[in-house]
Amino acid sequence: MNLPSVTIIDYGVGNLLSIQRAFEHLGATVQVSSDPKVILKSKRIVLPGVGAFPNAIKALRKLNLIPAIHEAASNRKSILGLCLGMQLLFDESNEFETSSGLGLIPGKVIPIPATDSFTNPRKVPHIGWNSLAPSENHKSWQGTLLSRNKPGESVYFLHSYMVLPTNQHHRLAETSYGGDKVVAAVAKDNIIGFQFHPEKSGTVGLRILDTFIREAK
Question: Does residue 84 sit within a domain?
Answer without folding.
Answer: yes
